Amino acid sequence: MTTIPFKFPFNIKLYRPVKPTGVWDWLTTIDHKKIGVLYGVTAFIMFLTGGIEAMLIRTQLIAPELKIIAPEVYNQLFTMHATTMIFLGVMPLSAAFFNFIIPLQIGARDVAFPRLNAFSYWVFLAGALIMKASWFLGGSPNAGWFGYAPITGATFNPGNGIDFWIVGLQVLGVASLAASFNFIVTIINMRAPGMTLMRLPLFTWMTLLTAILLILAFPVITVALIELMLDRTFDFNFFNTKAGANPILWQHLFWIFGHPEVYILILPAMGIVSEILPTFSRKPIFGYPAMVLAASFIAFMGWLVWSHHMFTTGLGPIANSVFTLTTMLIAVPTGVKMFNWLGTMWGGDIDFKTPTLFAVGFLSMFLIGGISGVMHAFSASDYQQQDTYFIVAHIHYVLFGGAIFGIFAGIYYWFPKITGRMYDEKLGKLNFWIMFIAQNLTFFPMHFVGMQGMPRRIFTYDSEMGWAFWNGFETIAAYAIAFGVLIFVINMIKSWTGGKKAGDDPWDGRTLEWSIPSPPPLYNFRDIPIVKSVDDFWHTKQKSDTKVKSKTKVSDIHLPQPSYWPFLVAVGLAIAGFGIIYNLVLTGIGIGIMLITVCAWSFEPVNEPDSH
Amino acid sequence: MFKTIKKFLPILLSLLFVIACGGYDGPQSTFDTHGPVAKEQADLFYLILWAGMVVLVAVELAIVYIYIKYRRKKNSEKIPSQIHGNTRLEIIWTVLPVIFLAIVSVPVLSAIWYVGTPPENPDVVVNVEGHQYWFEFEYPDLDVVTANELHIPVGKTILINLDSKDVLHSFWIPKIAGKTDIIPNQGNYMWIQGDDVGMYYGQCAEFCGESHALMRFRVIVETDEDFRAWISQQKSEAFVPNDPLEKSGYDIFMSSKAGCGGCHMIQGSKKAKGKIGPNLTHFGSRQHMAAGILENNQVNLRNWIRNPDMIKPGNIMSGQGAVYMDPNKSLTESEVIALASYLQSLK
Amino acid sequence: MSDETTTGLNHRKLLMWVFLGSDCMFFASLIGTYLIYKGSGVAHPGPADVFDIPTTSVSTFVLLMSSMSMVFSYAYLVRDNIKAFRIWLLSTMIMGSTFLGFQIFEFSEFYFHDHLSPQTNLFGTTFYALTGTHGIHVTIGVIWLGIIFYSSLFRNTVTSKTNLDLDLAALYWHFVDIVWIVIFAVVYLFGTFTGFPAS
Questions:
Q1: Burial annotation C23-41 (CB, 10 A radius, 16+ → b, else e)
Q2: Whole domain around residue C126: which residue ranges?
Q3: List of residues 6+ apart from C44 with CB closer than 8 A
């Protein structure tokens, strides 16, 4: 890798890369498009590992009183399955799209802080590796993805598993925060001329709201995790019941983070659906202002409902009533979005290609998850549903039928733009139908099994309980989901390099990303577009078919330069993290590395070496 | 016509699937209510279930209709009317749900208060303490301490106080009442009432560790007469048994080698005063053992005493009992048989 | 980042505001934890036993004055009065360090004299966690100001044209000061004066 020096205090020379290639290119990239691909591929692999964890869980439950998986391992499996799917699956898959698509949708050449962007990916990778390494380093966390005190304390959980969970989540939190800061500044401050907030594509709007939720919610779980770590490592008393602590503090802190977190998980998918339905229906989104207002209301209300996760913890009828009412209220803007999506399709000329199928599948599945959600909202009857498979059904309808279907829709939709090729449409449709049918067969019976009294997080159950048939059925159906995912993987591998060439605008799109080549050049837009309305690209196309000649010389475009410092800071953070688990000396070393590399980063010039 | 059937077949199959899912009621069914609290909760659930089904069917049918009617014909170049919205319609479909929810909130709030407000003068008070992995029941006004089997008189109000000295648990008897979590230092309570004589299943419903799945219990709802008889039986002290096998079991139980008395209470004895494990004074009177997961008979009891960790991984007894920790102190087969015999004699 | 931005605000300035919003929630969670446990816990000592309000009032005053000093420093930099800027910057650092000195003194009094450690009781745990975190924030601020001061020793490195760097540091500094005002009121004053709820 060729490097050139830059100035650092005390006459020290440090280096930065010049036009790196191959592996060095990927290691030092600050290009949002490459970072998006890194996020997407890494997150998808993590999603697959979470899927394996799920298959093992389902296998243990296929029949009553089985001993395929020991209870201690089972507890680690459901903890890791949820933690993986939420933090290593859905969130970074959404981030992959934020990275690749947002600058393209707002007419920018990159994000506001390209090196911070690269940093957030490498830190995500570090967090993912720390989390997954726990399987091989003495045991994974075993107290659920929500880690309720006091079972996560040193008394009841002396091993390293919970420490891996704490450190992994903190590191992942740094990645999420860094990315969100970046996207907020990018969306607010780097829009093409004429692109007012009410002309933003809805996916960009949802990203902005998601990022705002994230930067306000993550600090709360950061504090909770710090408190738990202080308890475990230094004998503090935050959750020490013998000192008079009330473990419900953990639940409050966790869910004040946790509820906005579920909106962080679903808003991006909603944004994707809001792009796909208009494009494939050849109509604008129905009620654009209402969609923005509804999403903003959801983001705001999301802070006022957290204790609906705690209805059975003895908060009292007043608190339960308040949270019941706020939770019922939040169903309204969600319903509004649903109706607006239907209104978009109504009267349209709809092409049911794979992205459309997944988007409509999202509507259909999220509806079911939303209705069971309203059922949980009634706290009195929630006393029967809480901690049962009824909730597991709800979760998977909204997160699998909702978030994952939305993400798959986005993958198929933007596949041509990202790779320059078309995926195989037949395989895509097959993938959809298998996943759609299998997901319903797997998760619908859970509503009934839950109401028949099957609690969550149990490694086995008695044959006399009457749950055996549906559990067996659900397991077979879950294997079918895995088969559907396999079809997807085959389609991706086959099409990434071997698919038909896609062209700039295979879907007759409405938003700016379709106005540039597929895949986009490094600088995205030759000329920064001037925006006059929502769906400006669509309107431009209607007026005239001819492409306007570009006025900008490519050599005049200045782009941010690659750097390896973000990678090195991430390495320092990872070492510091491992130190918290094993030996605080390592933490000291890690922090030292971070201080030096952050300083180097801050002195490194942003521009090209030969510019003034 | 075949085409029409093909279009609607998926919908028909889905409906059939949904109907098939519902069905009979198992031992922990929340639909088979036997007490006013569970009934109130089930009624509330039915209310939203029907409303939800109406919305579900309506919207899913709309989706299917859209799929059929607005599908693009092959190679169509048509650009449909570019409608941006309809303010009146959007206001209607925002306001109507709010009105519906406002109406529904009346029975909802009423149920919340009903379920969450215990009667002022309950007929019986029970202090429930959750342990890893069993439930302890104390009747403070009646001087009874027992475990894993809760007896209550039919048709009477029961106040349940909930506590734990270890981790979180949750107290749940689906057919009688929805659950309330057991949180150390929080002082939670709930009220229940059993309206039909019978035996009901309960299960811990908050993850509490390795054998969370195996932490269950039974509730016996019985006539007032039977309840009082049970109480006086439970209050009575245990005697030293006469039968030689049972007596040898008694000796082993009380011996310092086995050390059972260090954790388990046998009222009336001098050496068994422990409060760490379940009170075993009337162990023989219980129908189930090991926290509701096994029938209380000789075979199961011997298996349990021989190797509790095989039945309930992570249980405290095999983690702390000398006979399990120290290979020099482990029980011989005849000792196991004697102990089982003694314990079952404790009626 | 010298290109035009949509709002006219520099990217880094916007970033600092967003970051401070996030840091608000961070402190809010720690303060919330403190308030939830206020008055509970089994062992002594409690706030009324250890707090020395007069002394802490002095250190609070010093920190508040450091914010004023920060304002002067920035105002002079913008007017290219480099000498005055450096004097007021140094003064801010000294006052910030004085505050930290008071904190260290207070912590050692509590620890050695009153036997209050984070492990002692809920008050110790929540107090040290909250004020310790704040102290770390102040320390980071002092180091940051120190780096700017050191850079300013080299001619033409820190000028009115580069005032954004100091502007960002000043925003951070004022934020940390405001958080302290909240902590002083909620932890120290609420904790010791009768008339405020004790639990």
A1: bbbbbbbbbbbbebbbeeb
A2: 11-38+58-192
A3: C121
Answer whether residue B11 shows pLDDT above 80: no
Give domain status of residue C30, yes or no: yes
Minimal-distance CA residue of chain C relative to A240: C122
User: pLDDT tens, A283-313?
Assistant: 999 999 999 999 999 999 999 999 999 999 9
Give the closest of A331, A339, A379 to B112, CB-based: A379
**Are B57 and A371 a contacting pair, CB within 8 Å?**
no
ipTM of the complex: 0.94
Residue whose tokens read 């506001």: A112
**Pairing between β-strand B134-139 and β-strand B144-147 as defined by DSSP bridges:** antiparallel
User: Cβ distance B190 to B216 under 8 Å?
Assistant: no
Is residue B219 within a helix (H) or strand (E), and if so which, with residue range? strand B216-222
CA distances (Å), origin B177, targets A170, A319, B129, B139, B174: 39, 20, 18, 19, 6
CA geometry: angle C145, C146, C148, nearest 5 deg: 65
For residue A72, what is the enclosing H or E element? Answer: helix A71-83
Average confidence (pLDDT) per 10 residues, chain C, 199 residues: 79 97 97 90 82 95 98 97 96 98 96 95 95 97 95 89 95 98 94 62
What is the distance between the alpha carbons of residues C30 and A597, in angstroms, rounded to a whole number? Answer: 30
CATH number for position C119:
1.20.120.80
Question: Quick check: is C2 in a domain?
Answer: no
CA–CA separation, A453 and B205 (whole Å)? 10
| Residue (of B37, C33, B117, B171) closest to A313 by Cα position | B171
Find chain A residues with C-beta within 8 A of B41's C-beta: 380-381, 383-384
The top-level CATH class assigned to B244-345 is mainly beta
Candidates A277, A274, A290, A271; CA nearest to A204 is: A271
At B120, the amino acid letter reads E
Determine which of C34, C125, C131 to mutate to test the interface with A (most A C-beta atoms within 10 Å). Answer: C125
Whole-number Å distance between alpha carbons of A111 and A32: 7
Give CA–CA dist B118/B102, Å, rounded.
Answer: 26
Contacts of A212 (CB under 8 A, 6+ apart): A180, A184, A299
**Euclidean distance between CA atoms A87 and A401, whole angstroms:** 17
Question: Using CB atoms, which residue from C18, C26, C125 is nearest to A184?
Answer: C18
CA torsion through residues B287, B291, B292, B298, sign: negative
Of B314, B181, B44, nearest to A387 by C-alpha is B181
Strands B189-192 and B216-222: unpaired
Q: Measure the CA–CA gap between C22 and C26, rounded to whole angstroms.
A: 7
- Name the residue of chain A whose CA is nearest to B107's CA: A378
Residue C183, in any domain of the structure? yes
Identify which of B326, B266, B334, B283 has the alpha carbon closest to the alpha carbon of residue B306. Answer: B334
In chain B, % helix, strand, coil (3-state, to 5) comes to: 45, 20, 35
Quickly count: other Cβ atoms within 10 Å of residue A62's Cβ. 17
Class of domain A7-11+13-541: mainly alpha
Question: Long-range contacts of range A323-327, CB-CB < 8 Å, 24 or more positions apart?
Answer: A323/A379, A324/A377, A324/A378, A324/A379, A324/B105, A324/B108, A324/B109, A324/B112, A325/B105, A326/A301, A327/A373, A327/A376, A327/A377
- Rounded to whole angstroms, the Cα distance separating A145 from A127 reads 15
pLDDT, tens digit (0-9, with 9 covering 90-100), for A15-47:
889 889 999 999 999 999 999 999 999 999 999
Q: Which of C11, C26, C151 sits opposite A189 (nearest CB)?
A: C11
Please say whether the beta carbons of B265 and B247 come within 8 A.
no
A349 CA: distance to closest CA in chain B (Å):
5
Q: For chain C, what is the domain count?
A: 1
